[in-house]
Design brief:
The complex is a heterotrimer of chains A (502), B (497) and C (106). Chain B is an all-alpha fold. Chain B contains 20 helices and 2 strands. A two-stranded antiparallel ribbon of chain B has the order 1-2. The chains are: A mainly alpha (502), B mainly alpha (497), C mainly alpha (106).
Chain lengths: 502, 497, 106
Amino acid sequence: MSPWLPVLLPAVVSLVTFVAGEERGRLRVAVNFGGALISAVVVIRLAVDAYAGRVHTWEIETLPGLAVGLSSDLLGLLYATVATVLWGVTLVYAFGYMSHAEDRARFFGFFALCIASANGIALSNDLLTLFVFYEVLSLATYPLVVHSGTAKALAAGRRYLYYALGGGAALLVGLVWLHVLSGSLAFVPGGALASVADHVGELRAIFALLVIGFGVKAALVPLHGWLPGAMVAPAPVSALLHAVAVVKAGVFGIVRLVNEVYGPELARSIGVAQPLAILAAATILFGSIVALRQDDIKKRLAYSTVAQLSYITLGTALCSPLAAIGALAHLAHHAAMKITMFFTAGSLAETHHIKSVSRLDGIGRVMPLTMWSFAIASFGLAGLPPVAGFFSKFPLGVGAAQAGEIWAVILFVTSGALAVGYLAPILIRAARRGDADAFGDRSADEAHDAARRRPESDPRMLWPIVTVALLALAMGLLAGVPGSPLDWAARALAPSFVGWTP
Amino acid sequence: MSLALHLPALLVVVPLAAAAVAFVVGPRAASWIALVTGALTAALAAAMAWLAVTTGPVSYAIGGWGAPLGINLIADGTAAVFLVLVGVVGLAVTVFATGYFRPATADDPGPGHGMFWTLWLFMWASLNALFLTGDVFNVYVCLELVGLSAVALVTISEGAEPLRAGMRYMFASIFGAMTYLLGVALLYGAAGRLDMRQLAESLDHSVAAQTGLALMIAALLLKTALVPLHFWLPSAHAAAPAPVSAVLSALVVKGSFFVVLRLLLDVMPPGYLGDARVLLGVLGGAAIVWGSLQALFQQRLKLMVAYSTVAQVGYLFIIFPLAAAGGTVLPTALLGTLVHATSHGLAKAAMFLAAGMALKRYGHDRIADLAGAARRTPVLAATFALAGVTMMGLPPSGGFAAKWLLVGASLEAGQWWWALVVVVGGLLAAAYMFRVLAHFIADPGDRPGPVGNLKPLRTEWVPLGLAACASLLLFAVPLLTRLVESGTAMVGAGVIP
Amino acid sequence: MSPAIIYSIAGAALFAVGAYGLLVRQHLLHKVIASNFLGSGVFLVLIGLGRRSDGPSSDPVPQAMVLTGIVVTVALTALALALIKRYYSATGLTTMEPPEPEEGAR
């Protein structure tokens, strides 16, 4: 089974969706769901193989001395599986959400292209390949951000491009420099730069350039500025791309960079891990505190994403096995929890025209299933067992303690409290006894009636929410079982830490 | 004697003969002749490339008369890259032109359009000859032939503006050609040779030889439209009919650049005219910045694309200050330059053809009024977007591969500032490309929709195909690498200290 | 001073005159004539160089070049005149840009 398939299948879906055009809606649905289903099966097959130690590799030569190549290792497959499985769920939601929108061919075409490139990023076996897909992802996201074509969307898109292309340029220079210096860009567990380890200055500069490049998508402060604005995109985009595929591409890049290019040991010894950790810590605090003050639900969630992404970055930068594993597990855990929240936000906006926290009073009684799902995700994000979040934050904290970074442990606890601070108001307001009839656009009778007739949203939107919330719960409850994200992360990263076994 | 041995001659003779035939028959038959000839010539170019890879550089003495009295054609890997580029772009433009020059309505008969096929085949023959020639005087003749047909092609549109732009182009072209010839005269006086290979062996450091070569290169820069000698390009490329613009921007400027490359890398030893090489790089950098800034502020699509050419030409000259550095710098930079020339050729042709589509379908090419084009004419918008990927140098396009190689060569040579220029140029290109794309995606409001159409409509897929090729060219780099590594037919490089 | 040098200097002078005319003069016919000056200047330099070799017979290559050059120049001149004629009948102008008030180029 070729590791190209998880890239190729969504790419084909994308192409067919474009060529089929706006009018052929049934073909679009069939191709997208068929593609998502087959892709999920393929990815899981590859994962089963990888668990059994069978890693498939496929590469072709491109630039002199370099190849574009994919390999189905466990580390990459974790991210690919998350992206692909959630793609299928999001498609259900998106077909409900976009059922009256314009330009659907363009939307779903680029959506599939994003998944293709996210899978490419995940399965790349060197930095060049990763960069290729990383830039494709940057471009493919743009039409989705500006989908509505309004001036506000176009402005957000422009801002996104400044960041994304600027970061891409830094990445390009860093990669070429690294290639000229070391002659190789391949991923090797534990690091591949031992032979040039004495070029400390250059290695530091390259690391900085690459972190700038990945940091844009990972929303590291001060490179996070595009993310809240990009929330102008349709909800499925915010959910799958701005909580999962795109932003995780950035942190995944950092994970690969620290663990498989520099290697935890070298990253520590040349002193690049420490500044990265401090930057990530600052981002966590910043994102959490700013999230407290947002009234717009999507913006609040976006700043929460900024903070949560840096858990992954920080865990990686601590260069301690347990922290790195917790970080990688958090990549999957956070995906399931945050996508639940964005789905909810989209349903609230679409079904009841609620976009701000202050108008949520009593919604829990109207949309119980939706809001219970949100609650599960919230518990997880705050780090309460048995939802998934706890099972990434616990190893993160223990790892930090083992690495002797007590400040990081304190930070994790603090930011957990902050998460409670920005999520609890939503739940509390939802649980209040509000005026159950008075939702949505109070002046518009039509919307009012619709809200009364169908208090929960379109089933195509409701069931995906429940599904992902249960997924987040399951990831936590089954954390000890082989195949759970935590177990997966432990196996994927073990080779990077010599002499350490799970 | 097998036919393969005559490939270089056939590459010139076939389109030339077809041009003559196309002149005699009517426009309808001429378009069919052009299609068949185009396919044949493209196939010949591919065969030439294959020959260059398998047997090494090919030298061909026209009529059996070798240098110094006769003229040699030389086909090595570098030439083959350009020949194939001309073949691919040429064929695509020919197919597109069958739709573009077909009278769409009774009131748009396009009077001069019947001449398009003859002139275009004539230019194709001249371009092939230019890329094949191994003789500095023959370069002059080819340049004039290309220039003559180009000027005529620019002016086949009706109206005063194409005529004005065509004449400006013509006078610039004449001045360039005559300056080039003056340089050839001085060089011949000093070296007594015209054949490039013989020149490479006998070049000395006399004032006459250096002045002659400097004049020749300056003239070629004018023809390549390197800043600040670009003044004639935007108006000419924007005023011409779209298929002509595509050929001019994608191929014709590459012709004169190719000669610069030959002269500086193959004929002259490294270090010859050392300071001038740095100057070329500086001008290239200036072109990138200046052209991009101009493109950013254009209101019309075709002018924007034309200024983009001014900018993209700059990248081709970064190689010259790097060439003297040792190690793998020169091969890397040369490959990067060739990849850039190829991908820019494909993408720029696609962009001009797309601009032609905009003109045909909306009746204008004002960028601001093309809002909603992504919804109304998705193929047009997709073409532009895909071509833009190459202009911006994002993977997996050829533009990306070129930037990677050029940045790598700069860093390896320790001249990081060229890398900076290349990267900044990519960002500027993104700025001017996304400005257009944002308009395409924007809500059209009450702006008028498409008014006309290409006939047959399927020709609108041609530019999209070209743009797609350009944006996937990274995967074709190994082919180009093999062509470059197949060696150069020139023996001069490094002979003279 | 050898004839070759004299020819070359005269050729260079002609070239300079032609360049001046092409760049400075506005009237299109002036530009065409100036282009021919350019050509003639270059041809003169080539002819002069042809006498470079000592001995009774001169070098044939420059003469071949001059002949070719003349052919090309004639073709170019014809094209230029045809374009100017079309341009004049389309616009009534004899300069590239509409003339300034004080210039009576027409």
